[in-house]
Amino acid sequence: MKIIGLTGDAGSGKSAVARILAELGATVLDADRVARRLTEPGTPVLAEIARVFGQGILKPDGALDRPRLAARVFTDPEERDILNRIIHPPVQAILEQEIAAARDGGLGVLVVEVPLLLETGLDKLVDEVWLTVADPEVKLERLKARGLTPEVAAGILAAQMPQELKAEHAHRIIDTNGSLTRTRQQVIKYWTEIKPE
Ligand SMILES: CC(C)(COP(=O)(O)OP(=O)(O)OC[C@H]1O[C@@H](n2cnc3c(N)ncnc32)[C@H](O)[C@@H]1O)[C@@H](O)C(=O)NCCC(=O)NCCS
Ligand SMILES: Nc1ncnc2c1ncn2[C@@H]1O[C@H](COP(=O)(O)OP(=O)(O)OP(=O)(O)O)[C@@H](O)[C@H]1O
Asked: Which family is annotated (predicted)?
């Protein structure tokens, strides 16, 4: 099985590219979704977050108040480090397990979509790094369109390795500044290159 690590800044179009790759036949594993599952009500990770960040970080129904936690961790690097230390080890363990299982498995392509692929060193476990890129103002506009405040949106981008540095580690780069059709064309071209049959 071929394993692609898909990464890129927040708002750079990873999820859009992952959807196209899934349509083309890849299996997609999304690190954000793994992190969400690990922080569902009743999990040890959520209990630890509530212990460290206070019960106010939970909504009345006991679920994680994600916008509230985002506002804290993306404007305060120390708080972000604390969250990362709680949540990254279990997320990484699951991703490593899934990648190892895929290696033992059959043919096909596994795409692991990980915003912090390079920052966490998980790129060493994949065969190729694919990077989505967009101009800073495009990424910021997309994040604001999701309802994030400009401060939180800028905080997320500041918490990630700069796009130019990421590009030094990438095998294939997808520019998402244009239309979705343009993005799709680039993805199909790369897909054809790795799946020549
Ligand atoms: C802080 C949380 C609760 C905010 O949730 P929310 O639903 O508002 O945002 P979402 O998860 O969609 O994240 C938005 C984007 O921020 C970026 N991001 C998320 N966490 C981090 C982080 N710790 N450091 C840098 N960027 C991050 C990603 O690009 C992500 O796609 C959530 O992001 C979280 O649990 N983060 C820690 C887990 C993590 O690091 N995930 C990313 C890769 S494993
Ligand atoms: N040409 C394009 N390519 C990709 N996405 C585009 C394009 N034009 C507009 N978009 C939109 O921009 C947004 C990109 O956000 P997306 O969720 O794919 O980014 P992301 O890299 O996964 O971000 P995050 O890491 O924050 O989850 C989507 O709403 C998508 O529909």
From this structure: Belongs to the CoaE family.
Specify the number of domains making up the chain: 1
**Confidence band of 172 (pLDDT split at 50, 70, 90):** very high
Calculate the CA dihedral of residues 42, 102, 100, 103 and round it to 10 degrees. 180
ipTM > 0.90 for the complex: yes
- Judged by its nearest atom, the ligand closest to the C-alpha of residue 7 is 2
Within a domain: residue 154?
yes
Q: Which residues line ligand 2 (CB under 6 A)?
A: 8, 10-16, 115, 132, 142, 176, 178-180, 182-183
Distance CA 6, CA 27 (A): 12
Residue 179 labelled as part of a binding site: no
- Once rounded to an integer, what is the mean pLDDT over residues 12-35? 97
The CATH number covering residue 176 comes to 3.40.50.300
Q: 13 alpha carbon to ligand 2 midpoint, in Å?
A: 3
Contact yes or no for 171/130 (Cβ under 8 A): yes
14 is in an annotated binding site: yes
Q: Which ligand is nearest to the CA of 130?
A: 2
